[in-house]
Amino acid sequence: DIVKLFTKENIVPENAIPWIFNLVPLVGLVATISILLYLPLGGFPPVLSQNGDLILILYLLIIPSLAMVVGGFSSGSPYAVVGAQREMATMIAYEFPLAIIIISIATRLVQNGGVNVFALSTIASTPVWNIVGPLGFIGLVILLLVLLIVTPAELSKIPFDSPEAETEIAGGLLVEYSGRNLAMFYLTDGVKTVAMASIIVALFFPYAISGLFGLESYFAYAADIIFYLV
């Protein structure tokens, strides 16, 4: 479907602000792809890594949603404006819990004497499950459940799809988008889904499964990547 959309005509509404309307899909896609560059993949280290990369990832996660909001407001459609308003309200609801989860994990690492606690490399080398007691274990389970609830909200999936509710506001934010712009938004959604799943694994399950089965070489990398993605 995405490939077909790239071949379709890109229509800009008469009431839209053309340069903003056409720019924000690309901004959202670039930001989402950038997130993947900071995430490890199985036994492979991230392409980019620095102190505080978790904070950067948190900001990058906001950009695709902001791009959709700006695109909705710039389209000139009342349906898109309503969708943009809903998306802004939803963002306030899910970004705060996501920040709390990251800060909670970083705080536990600090208590354990960790350095650069907002770096994914630190979490990978010191899984939080290994440094907590019984009460801490319960706390981590709660944080994991909260993250699993926040994830569909971050991705605007059911039951958190009110900004794009097709039955109410005809697609909401994306109602005026078509062609390559719509394809980029759909591609952004797919990449962001992979990114959110990778973040869950990187924060709570930074383990290499190949060691459990004594795998080596390419088999080890393949097993770790499959475990990471599944």
Automatic annotation (TrEMBL):
Sorted alphabetically, the Gene Ontology cellular component annotations on this record are:
plasma membrane
* Localisation: Membrane
Residues in the signal sequence:
none
Tell me what topology the record assigns in the membrane. Multi-pass membrane protein
Q: Which UniProt keywords apply?
A: Membrane, Transmembrane, Transmembrane helix
Membrane-spanning intervals of the chain? 20-42, 54-80, 92-111, 131-150, 190-209
A Pfam family (short name) is NADHdh
Record's protein name: NADH-quinone oxidoreductase subunit H
Organism in which the protein naturally occurs: marine sediment metagenome
Taxonomic path: unclassified sequences, metagenomes, ecological metagenomes
